[in-house]
Request: fold
Amino acid sequence: MATGPPFFVVVVPGFGGSVLASEQDGVVWDSALGSVVRRLVDPDILGLSSGVPDGVVPAGLITSTHVTPWMTVVHGYDALLGGAATLWGSGAAIDRGDPARRDDRADVVGFAYDFRRGVEQAAMRLAVDIEARVAARRAAGLATRVVTVAHSMGGLVARAWIARFGGHEHCERLFTLGTPFLGSLKALDVLANGIGTGRLRRRGAAAVLASWPGTFDLVPRWRCLPTAAGPVSPAPRGRATRSDDKSDTSPGRWPREATASWLDARQVSQAAVRLGEVDDAWAELESHGGVPPWRAMVGIAHGTPQHVVSIDPLVLSDARPPWLDPSGLAGDGTVAWSSAVPPGCAFSDPCVWPASGRHGALPAAPEVLAALHGLVAPHPSGDRGFEQWVGIRTDMPEVLEPGQPFRLQASVVGHDGSLVDLGGAVVVVTVRALTDEVPGIPVRLECTTDGGGSWEAKAVLDPGFHEVTAAVSGAAHRSPPAVVQRVAVAAENAFP
Reply:
């Protein structure tokens, strides 16, 4: 083990971010888009029966580019694992979560879990895993404190571990990256409409996803469904509400109150109770000063489903409703900003940091690595630069059907979501194909502008993964970080 910081790092991936395998079928969940789709429409492979073991076990983190059931493209966790290892300079040991190659004394650990079974089971497994590692490291004279970096659903797992399963005794610091503390409207979308896009949509996958408690752990925990009076607010700002919360008088209906045939109200209610118990335990721990310092990285600049337009059929909208305050904020493309702000916190709280990347790119975001390095070499001011923050807002599809034109819209926004004038600066968009994770030569796309601060680029991309970069050129000052997002173009036979 390398000499380094007085802690070790544990990376907890998001929903769909762990490899799953079984003795009978081998790998049943990995990074290949076609195989994911095939298995999601076959209940005999990944479907769950209540309380019945199916022999599927986690077998490591997905390190390469992959597509989640939400049709979000995640860059993989290799960059995060490798970036965390640089805290030790050189020689750090990395355990990527494969049980066949387990290293209890590793400096950087990937915690793989069966995301189908939900937050609570994963948190209990994390508790057992950490206890074993702490014991092994203590016996070897190594640091036993844990810095936890958790992406998306992994933040819910880490929070439950800390609040309910003894994690507060070991956790030195918690970083959450785009965690849907109040849920995501995309969970409703897959339950209602299945997965895929356009003519490649496969509605049969909805039945398999509906058999997973983990899917329901991501259903929104606010009155998100419209009433006869119309659509409702995207989320109560910074506060999780529960069905027994008498103080919540906001309009709209709870997901459990939906009469749509595609939504199991019982599972929605059970998930809300489970997560509500975590909220209560966290609040109790916090009241005694037992919560570790933490930072929530929140995407605010990208087009994200904000509200439900209709229930049956389910229709979501990215449009920012006029009642959303601050009205210019959006999300990270998958999780609305108001859901990624931790319960009990406000967007302006010091623990909340705006992030420039989209949801799938957050594990590889430069802000995350900078925050980790700040633990061993703190910035003199410790200031998150909130008032000065600028970022590139993007609206783009992340998964396209064959022949579907790729279209990206971009603008530069400030911390409140308002347009920022960078003088004569322009937005430059490049795209390059990825072959076995190796990027090809970047090609600059032609960008047009409306003259009001927005740019647009279009292209027809070949099947496969592509890396799209939107950057600002010519800014005299306050140039925002580039947005790097990977896009998947399905082949004709990708969705069986």
Observations:
- Residues 387-496 form a domain with the Immunoglobulin-like fold (CATH 2.60.40.10).
- The chain has two domains: 1-386, 387-496.
